[in-house]
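To illustrate the input format used throughout this study, we show a single complete record. The first block contains the structure-token representation of the backbone; no residue identities are included at this stage. The design step must infer an amino acid for every position from geometry alone.
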């Protein structure tokens, strides 16, 4: 067992214990409250006091009494006027499972925010447990809205997701539309700072009240409803190594088989080296693709040769003319650049690609979305592209976007959430699935000073074209 690091300012964990906590997802079997307390507090601070932990709702203290560290002091947050100093706060809001309940609890949540503002120490953390709820009428982004409220006063530092098993008893009947299961809990981490680097300003879509749908029925798309899953991609082919962010064909095939039938048309408006197009052809579908970089187009065409099922255009997906030769489409799937993160210096994978003489970003083209430094302009560009996709999708057709939230210079940019907000005019948001990775090496980001996860979960956002 490694000795406790005396320079560790956050907790009394060994470096190995710290490292294991760094993964951004975990299997949720028991309450994670004891583990969070051990990570975000100490049993003994420099002035001699033990870690003071604020907990809401108060019954969590009694419910987890046997597992909670005995060398901490616990504060039941029931009186927002109390003046008990806290080193860490844990708030469980997972009982909020609808929009009505959320906005009905707004005053209560404002009280919790006030309590944390008054009683939480500077540079100390808050963890909020919350869920998004998915149903046939659309997804209710409860956890994201709560994050928005807290971001007015605290800095969002990171997120972990807790992934629980799904029992057969929970299996819902076939619905009129596709929806993922509700088996993921968000654990959202905030820190109290003197200054806020940015606040969340998105306007999230909420499902309309249930009415008779004008969209065509879609009962076939109910076989792949996992809220989370582990996927280990096979090794990449030599030719496609040139692409710095390829996503795996076998993962794409899973979505294509779920949302389409043989002979239907699938689009990827950012086709790269043709992975999604090849996946569609492997599934017996017709594939349409657009790619800005001519070098990637040549690699893609070499991969599928003269396959008559695939139509690939060299062009800019933000321009309407790039779509003209395609018929109306049944489904679309894509993975956009994760902003300009490939151009960030210091990334380990980028250093390895540089040493191997491989391309580290998509292109030098100023029209390339991966070269846009301004975050809001980047979101606007994606929205324009996905608007053109909507115009090509048949009413009721599905669209899946695979993406990550990103961290840049210590600031969270919730790329997945911002995309959902930006597309609310053209699409019904059906919900997120999480592609979880367990074959990546952990790195000790923020060790001794701050919680910075290794982001090993991707958002797989699925939308349905409005009528």
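Output of the design step:
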């Amino acid at each position: 067992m490694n000795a406790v690091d005396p320079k560790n300012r956050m907790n009394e964990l060994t470096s190995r214990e710290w490292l294991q906590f760094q993964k951004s997802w975990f299997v949720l079997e028991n309450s994670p409250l004891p583990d969070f307390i051990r990570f975000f507090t100490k049993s003994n601070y420099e002035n001699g006091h033990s870690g003071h932990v604020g907990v809401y709702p108060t019954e969590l203290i009694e419910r987890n009494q046997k597992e909670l560290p005995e060398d901490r002091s616990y504060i039941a947050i029931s009186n927002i006027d109390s003046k008990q100093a806290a080193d860490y706060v844990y708030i469980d809001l997972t009982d909020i499972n609808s929009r009505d309940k959320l906005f009905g609890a707004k005053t209560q949540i404002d009280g919790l925010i006030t309590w944390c503002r008054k009683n939480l120490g500077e540079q100390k953390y808050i963890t909020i447990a919350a869920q998004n709820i998915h149903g046939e009428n659309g997804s209710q982004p409860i956890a994201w809205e709560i994050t928005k409220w807290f971001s007015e006063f605290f800095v969002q530092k990171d997120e972990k997701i807790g992934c629980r098993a799904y029992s057969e008893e929970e299996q819902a009947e076939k619905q009129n539309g596709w929806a993922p299961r509700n088996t993921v809990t968000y654990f959202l981490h905030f820190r109290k700072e003197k200054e806020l680097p940015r606040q969340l300003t998105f306007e999230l879509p909420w499902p309309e009240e249930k009415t008779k749908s004008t969209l065509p029925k879609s009962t076939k798309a109910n076989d792949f409803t996992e809220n989370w899953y582990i996927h280990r991609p096979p090794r990449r082919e030599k030719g496609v190594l040139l692409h710095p962010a390829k996503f795996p064909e076998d993962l794409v095939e899973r979505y294509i088989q779920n949302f389409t039938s043989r002979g239907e048309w699938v689009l990827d408006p950012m086709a790269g080296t043709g992975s999604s197009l090849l996946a569609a052809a492997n599934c017996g579908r017709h594939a349409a693709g657009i790619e800005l970089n001519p070098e990637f187009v040549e690699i893609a065409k070499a991969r599928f040769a003269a396959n008559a099922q695939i139509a690939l255009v060299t062009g800019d997906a933000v321009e309407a003319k790039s779509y003209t030769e395609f018929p109306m489409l049944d489904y679309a799937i894509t993975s956009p650049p994760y902003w300009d993160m490939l151009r960030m210096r210091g990334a380990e994978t980028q250093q390895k690609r540089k040493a191997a003489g491989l391309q580290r970003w998509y292109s030098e083209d100023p029209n390339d979305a991966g070269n846009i430094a301004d975050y809001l302009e980047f979101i606007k560009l994606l929205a324009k592209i996905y608007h053109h996709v909507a115009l090509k999708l048949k009413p009721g057709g599905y669209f899946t976007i695979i993406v990550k939230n990103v961290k840049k210079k210590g600031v969270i940019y919730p790329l997945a959430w911002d995309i959902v907000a930006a597309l609310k005019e053209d699409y019904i948001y059906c919900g997120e699935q999480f592609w979880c990775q367990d074959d990546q090496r952990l790195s000790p980001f923020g060790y001794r000073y701050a919680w910075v996860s290794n982001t090993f979960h991707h958002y797989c956002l699925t939308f349905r074209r409005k009528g």
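Structural context for interpreting the output: The chain has two domains: 1-230+448-467, 234-423. DSSP finds twelve helices and 19 strands in the chain.
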